[in-house]
Batch of 2 targets.
Target 1
Amino acid sequence: MSAIPTNLNQILKTSSEYAAQNMRTLAVFDLDSTLFNVSTRTQKILSEFAELHKVDRLKGVEVKHEDWGIKEAVLRAGFTIENDLELLKSLRDFWSERFFTSEYLHYDVPYLGAISFVQDLADVGCEIKYLTGRDHTRMRKGTVEVLKKWGFPFAEENLYLKPNKEQEDELFKHEWFKKLNHSEYKKIFFFENEPVNVNAIIESCPEVEIIFLDTTHARKQEVTAPLYKIKHFGRE
Ligand SMILES: [Mg+2]
């Protein structure tokens, strides 16, 4: 693996220097919990459930950006598996019926500095691609709308979603990187928050420089490799 870049400015500088020598660079961005904070999506869904089912105890529940799904938020609010099982099951179903839909992507908010960083990277000549575990059928429409709405550099052909929701994200991303012609690029950067995906790409494509978004993840694995880690795209 190559040296860890010092910061986001270094990535811009590297891309710019290669572009000046007519060498291509590529930055691949995951979306959920990498460019977008999705806790506001979950917050909206919880509020709707609370309103619809008149669950006053749920109304003030805060979803934190480091939460994964709904579990941590409801446990923090005092709900328990023992006492509230039926309610929590029903909330979980309500949440998953909405969370993975185009409509609710509009409640996501980009992380600090994300839009300007991706734009600056595009401006210095780095190619931009979005590689997401969102699935094509349920989420492509909203994904396109939201990327455009927030002003991310966008072209249809640079957005890659899973062809079907059953496929594992890890496998989808692994195969995508395998198909990519790496020799066309002097440098490839991959921005990702999920350790399972990060570890799969470290293993299969060691030449890719991974930037780990230390935001939130599924708690299935940890990142142990010495990667550059950031919590957002804010720059000095
Ligand atoms: Mg993600």
Target 2
Amino acid sequence: MKYIISGTNRPGARSLQISELIQKIYSENGEQVEIIDLAVLPYHELNGQQYGGGLHEKWAEAVGKVNQADALIFVVPEYNGSAPGALKYFIDHWKYPESFEHRPVCYVGLGGIFGGLRAVEHLQQVMGYRNAFQYPLRVFLMNIFKTLKDGKLEDAVALQLLKDQVAGFKKFVAGLQSQAIDANSLLARK
Ligand SMILES: Cc1cc2nc3c(=O)[nH]c(=O)nc-3n(C[C@H](O)[C@H](O)[C@H](O)COP(=O)(O)O)c2cc1C
């Protein structure tokens, strides 16, 4: 199972709408994928004692999904020139190497005129440092305030780029799996 991570806990987030749109594109391509929505995780359960273990069940469940994901699709809004703290806080409760190493990941950014470029690139540093397999073709959704209406993306070029990313990422993940060098293949051999 691939998981889309809706990268903020902001209620009413556009990231969740984009995540649902991407989920629909996967479905149209014959693949069911699930969304991990940070907005439903109980952030109030985190008080600094949970790094490395002892997570509340909802958190353990979300991290467990990451740890057995065939691949992760990050939907990342730009907050103050970077990715949201809520997303980094989620990631900081993952396990190394299980959650990260050789896990195939791809990125969709959203924001103003830069379409979440900085947010995605900061996240790429994190995932690169932790040895994820990063799909190079990223999608940046610019001026998201104007282009997203009632869950519909009114930007034909951006929509096509999302479709292209889905098709390409499916092949990328399948290629890694076929050589048994993806995260789950490595974990199965341990
Ligand atoms: C706390 C916060 C900071 C933001 N900072 C930026 C920014 O630095 N650059 C930008 O292009 N947009 C910025 N925005 C606008 C968001 O990218 C835009 O509202 C987007 O819809 C946020 O994603 P969300 O709806 O999933 O929360 C910011 C929004 C919030 C809530």
